[in-house]
Orotidine 5'-phosphate decarboxylase (Actinacidiphila glaucinigra), 277 residues
Amino acid sequence: MNPEPFGARLRRAMDTRGPLCVGIDPHSSLLSAWGLQDDVAGLERFTRTVVEALADRVAVLKPQSAFFERFGSRGIAVLEAAVAEARAAGALVLMDAKRGDIGSTMAAYAATYLDPASSLFSDAVTVSPYLGFGSLRPALDAARASGSGVFVLALTSNPEGAEVQRSTAAGGASLAQVMLNHIAAENEGDVPLGSVGAVVGATLGEAGVDLAVNGPLLAPGIGAQGATAADLPRVFGDAVRNVVPSVSRGVLKLGPSVAALREAAEREAAELASVVK
Ligand SMILES: O=C(O)c1cc(=O)[nH]c(=O)n1[C@@H]1O[C@H](COP(=O)(O)O)[C@@H](O)[C@H]1O
């Protein structure tokens, strides 16, 4: 039997739990603010606490791989456990790894995150298309085969991104729009939602691109980077129904209390619900 596609699973999770994604970003400064050492034990305590607090209630948890990789193999072991525990508690796990390489290497990244046989198998992974959208083909194919998803960077939340992403491609469209067009083509005909998402920062003011990609739109930048839920309708227009707003430090800074993390996520969710109808 074919696995249920990621887009369908995500739509259901958004409809039942609300669309919020909380990032698991164990910054050294957050570990210290939580009274933890900046070591593997601190990393593990931090990660377990976030998963315990939120995996049974938010639609998506998004561990940022770099914060685990910095501790080497023991950090990766913490990440593996978090992925398994979060998925078991019902959250979809979006691995924020932002991988991008030539196609033959991309196949190895796909085997890492999008093959159910891997210990890091996730519901979806972030990838960069700026080696050419076609270089992502192995990940797109692996995701389709395993019922997982791929979130493709389009317009990132950082101000430096515009230099590349807003530049004009052959044919006159912006490079970001070219990537969005590719994403739309991947998702064509998928119901209720395609499994190839786009990353579009909530910080952009106005997106200025066509976001009708029939896929989820991950919107990081809320909280620490200055965007708020109230910005989403202006940035995303009619596509706001497909937005998965993502907050990391804005929620995590309320820890280590499980109750306080839950309250913070609930506050974010309530704000979102008031603007995303
Ligand atoms: O793909 C991402 O998640 C991402 C894309 C982007 O354009 N901007 C962005 O901030 N992110 C990630 O989203 C998280 C934002 O964290 P906060 O600023 O603490 O909410 C970090 O893990 C970033 O790596």
